[in-house]
Every structure is written in C-alpha cells, then in structure tokens.
Write a structure and sequence with these properties.
By secondary structure, this protein is mainly beta. 3% of the residues lie in helices and 53% in strands.
Length: 323
C-alpha cells in the first residue's frame, strides 16, 4: 500500500535527484508553508575552498658553486646543499629548513636569515644569506680540488675491493697527524680543500688461504705504499701508487716436489725477525710485499725453516723441507 499522498508521488524522485546534485529547491520544502534557505558556499558547491590563514610569502634562492674563484663554470655534480635557520634552537643547534643534492638548486624560502652550507666530498663552504622580499642568487667558492687515487700492481690497476686507502693531513714531523678519510675508494674523485695530504694504500689479502688475523686485521698485507700530495683548487690530481707484491703458497714436504704435509703451521718473518704472518694448513697462501723472508714450518713437535724471495707479480710455491 502506498502511504504517500498523491501530490508527492512524483516530487520525491525530483527531490532525491536535486539533493544528489548538491542542489535544493525552496519550492520542494513548502509543505508547511516554510521555506528552508539553501546553505551553499559562494561560487557553488564545486568552487575551490580558500584557506583563511594567510600564507607566508616565499621567494626562490638560486644556488651554485665553483671550485675556485677563477673557474668559469659552476660545479655540475657531486654537491650536497643544506640550509639552516640562523636562529638558534633551545639546544644550541640550527634548524635544517631545506636540503638538495642538485648542482644548482632553486629553494623556496620565507624572508629571514639563513646559513647555507655546500659540501663536495670533504670540501665545504658556509655562507650567511638574508632573504628580504625578493629572489636571491648566491654562488659559493669551495676553494677545493679533486683527488683520484689509482693503485697498480705491476702494469695492472688493482681491484678497489683488494685495497684500503687512508688520507691524512700531515703536520710538522708527522705525516699521519690527522686522519680525515679511512676508506677512500680507488678510482673515485674525492673532493678535498686545497692543501697537502698524505695517502696510504694497503694491499689486502683477498686470495690467501689459511692466514690468521694479524693486529686484528685478517687480510691486511705488508704491501703498503704511501705518497705526499698537494691538491690544488680547481684541478684534478691523479695519484698512481704502485704496489710490488705476489702470492706465495707454502708447503712442508719431505723432499723437493713432494706432497704437502697436513696439519702444518707456518710463521713468516723478515730477515730481522719481525713476524709478518702466521698460517695453518697443508698449503696456505699469502700475499707478501717484494723482498726476502724466512718461513718457519711446524709439524708435530718439530720445526723446520727456509728462506725465500718475493718478486712482484711472480706468484709461486715456497717449499720447506722437513729435514
């Protein structure tokens, strides 16, 4: 049974249709003689909403950097920009307000005073900038250069994974006064402030078998090459460091060319008696710098020894005769 009055029989769909479209007709609400005024935002329901909170004006800060004051072209890669508010926080720090890895970023900032820091590797520069109702453009001079280290073994470049490279700032009578980078990667361009540096490259024993840890480092060899270098602002310094080393495989045998005895232990010393390496196994191998050495082999309660010579890139076996 339809309980709706006849006069609403066709008005109800129209009312639903008008409401679904966000509209309201006063004519449809006059059943009791009252008119319900529609509450519609200015511009209609689909008009964009406006935030009554006033927005803080912002202006672009355009940044770029040069390696030296005489450079004609800005740095195009490898930069890290950080913008800090000059006002100190309660803990004494400066609030980071923006950062970018772009070579020449454009950062939108409200008016105020900021500390702009630009870094390239270990080189960096800081500058104070004040935004005052207009776009700003700042160019920082890093006074820095690039250093690329290329270690070689014989005539071949060494795999970076087989090296550990450290960079120091020298002081009077101390080439390693201040360590500034402990894990430099061979072949990479390292940004450094202009100045003097001491570079140390250590060849790692990544192919040796049976080596015991020495001084807490399991694979550092005695093949260590160092160099004193000067990095000039705006220029790339290439440093070639030549290692001279080879892989030695030790064997304790009953006769020349015989089968290696199992359960053997070896100690490698310099002619002066300094311990270079300790090894275990039937035929352990080790990377050694070019030079002369003494090998002491222990099997059971007995010890045997032999002297041998290492020539760069000439890998070979070293036999200790058990007699």
């Amino acid at each position: 049974m339809n309980l709706l009055p006849r006069r609403f029989a066709f008005a109800l769909p129209a009312l639903v249709l008008h409401l679904s479209l966000g509209l309201f007709s006063p004519a449809l609400a006059q059943d009791n003689g009252d008119v319900i005024a529609p509450i519609i935002p200015p511009g209609g329901l689909m008009a964009p909403r406006h935030d009554s909170t006033p927005q803080t004006p912002r202006h672009p800060l355009l940044l770029s950097a040069l390696l030296s004051a005489t450079d004609l072209h800005p740095i195009s890669d490898g930069l890290k920009w950080r913008i800090f508010d000059e006002t100190l926080e309660a803990d004494g720090s400066h609030k980071l307000v923006a950062e970018s890895n772009e070579a020449a970023p454009s950062l939108s900032l409200p008016d105020g005073t900021y500390i702009v820091h630009c870094a390239m590797g270990l080189a960096g520069m800081t500058q104070r900038v004040t935004m005052a109702g207009a776009p700003m453009s700042e160019r920082l001079v890093l006074n820095a250069g690039g250093l690329r280290i290329v270690p070689m073994l014989g005539d071949q470049p060494i795999n970076p994974a087989k090296l550990t490279i450290s960079i120091y700032v020298p002081a009077h009578n101390n080439a390693e006064a201040k360590l500034i980078l402990s894990k430099a990667r061979a072949g990479d361009i390292i940004g450094l402030p202009e100045g003097n540096y001491h570079v140390v490259s250590t060849l790692l024993d990544t192919t040796g078998v049976g080596s015991l840890a020495q001084n807490g480092i399991a694979n550092a060899t005695n093949s260590v090459v160092s160099a004193d270098l000067h990095v000039q602002a705006g220029k790339l310094t290439d440093a070639t460091l030549r290692h001279r080393a080879a892989v030695m495989t030790l064997k304790l045998v009953n006769a020349p060319g015989g089968e290696a005895l199992a359960n053997s232990a070896f100690t490698i010393l310099t002619p002066g008696g300094d311990v270079i390496r300790e090894l275990i196994g039937a035929f352990p191998s080790v990377v050694l710098a070019e030079g002369e050495y003494v090998a002491i082999a222990r099997h059971g309660a007995k010890s045997y020894q032999a002297t041998f010579k290492v020539e760069s890139t000439h890998d070979h076996d070293v036999e200790v005769i058990a007699r």
